[in-house]
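Exercise 7b. Backbone tokens:
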């Protein structure tokens, strides 16, 4: 009897958790539709105007490797600045820069691509109505991916 009761409770909890997720998703859907109508973004000219979807589903990297790439980029800047300030150790600094460049080329290609994507996303003109319309049309799918994303173990 206990196992049947536990099974019923488990099913109820699963249904309740799914209902909460679907309810939030439906709420988002309605909010976006309201905004699309208000800003007159429902016409056929807006179909396919995705702003962020092209960045999703790509072969990505780990957060730690992205941070390491950022550090390597800063080292390149530091070494360049040091070379500009003093020519005495130029050869040593050149070697360090070559080593960093080789490391980036051999072990951080995915991260460099992701870094470039991040720079592109951050450079979007958020005050541009065309960008806003494309982003709003794209919001539901981006939100869905972001809300269901699971970290790879």
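Sequence design result:
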């Amino acid at each position: 009897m206990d196992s049947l009761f536990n099974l019923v409770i488990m099913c109820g909890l699963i249904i309740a958790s799914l209902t909460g997720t679907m309810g939030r998703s439906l709420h988002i859907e309605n909010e976006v539709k309201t905004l699309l109508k208000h800003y007159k973004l429902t016409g056929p000219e807006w179909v396919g105007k995705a702003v962020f979807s092209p960045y999703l589903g790509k072969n990505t990297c780990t957060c730690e490797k992205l941070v390491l790439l950022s550090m390597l980029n800063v080292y390149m800047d530091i070494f360049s600045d040091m070379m500009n300030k003093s020519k005495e150790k130029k050869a040593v600094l050149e070697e360090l820069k070559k080593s960093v460049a080789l490391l980036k080329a051999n072990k951080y290609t995915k991260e460099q691509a992701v870094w470039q994507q991040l720079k592109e996303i951050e450079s979007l003109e958020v005050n541009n109505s065309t960008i806003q319309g494309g982003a709003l049309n794209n919001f539901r799918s981006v939100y869905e991916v972001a809300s269901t994303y699971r970290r790879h173990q």
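Instructor comment: The two ends are 37 Å apart (CA to CA). The CA atoms of residues 80 and 118 lie 24 Å apart.
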